[in-house]
Amino acid sequence: MSDDHKLVVPEVNGEVVTAEDLILANPNCTTMQLVMCLKPIHDKWGIERGVVSTYQSVTGTGQAAVDQLNGERAGLGPERVYPHAIDQNCLPHCDVFMENGYTKEEMKVHQETKKILGDPSIGLSCTAVRVPVFGGHSESVYLELASDVSLDEVRAAWSAFPGVVVQDAPHDNDYPMPRHAQGEDEVFVGRLRRDLTHARGIHFWVVADNLRKGAATNTVQIAELLVNSGRWG
After folding, report:
1. 220 confidence band (pLDDT: 50, 70, 90)
2. What is the set of active-site residues?
C-alpha cells in the first residue's frame, strides 16, 4: 500500500505505469480477478459498496499446503501448514488475523481495490475462506451500484473487456468453476442476477487460476505492457 509504488493489473490500470517506475507490484491474487470484473462496471455505472466472499485454493499457500491436502486425502497424516485439516473442510482463515477481526487477506481486498480502481470511496468488505481445491480461487460478489443497469448491459460490458470470459447460462449448467479455470489465463464470470432487496444490487461469481492471472500471467503482462508501449528500454 506504499504511496510510492503502484499496484498494476494491465487491463484495469495499465495507464498508470511510466518509464520512471522502477518497482511495480502485483496485487493480491484475489484482488486481481475481482477488479477485472469490477472495472467495466465501475466505469459505466459506479460502485457504491460491495461484499465479497472468497473460496481460495490451497495453491495460494504454496507447495506445502498442496502436500498437506494430498497427504490428508491419502490418510498419511502430513505436517500441517494450516491450523486445522483442510481435506473435507473449509477454513475461514486466510493469512493472519488483524486487530479489527479481519484477516490480512481480507484487508488486502478492501484496500487494494480502492487503489487499483483509483477511487477511495468504494466501500468493500471481504470474508476469505480456504477450500480443498487446486484449480483456482472463486469469489461470490455482491455490489450496490450508483445508477440503474440491466443485466444484459453488465454482460456486454464484461464481454467487451479484455481477459474476461462470460459463462452465464446456469440453466445449461454453464458457470465458472475452478476445475475448468486451472491452467487458463482469463478471468471467468457468471451467475449474474439481481439482488432481491436492493433495486441497484447485483450478485455474480468470479473464478480464475490464482497462479496464472493471479500471479505469473499478470507479471508477464506488465512486462509486455512496458515493452509494447515503448515505456521500457
Report:
1. very high
2. 29, 137
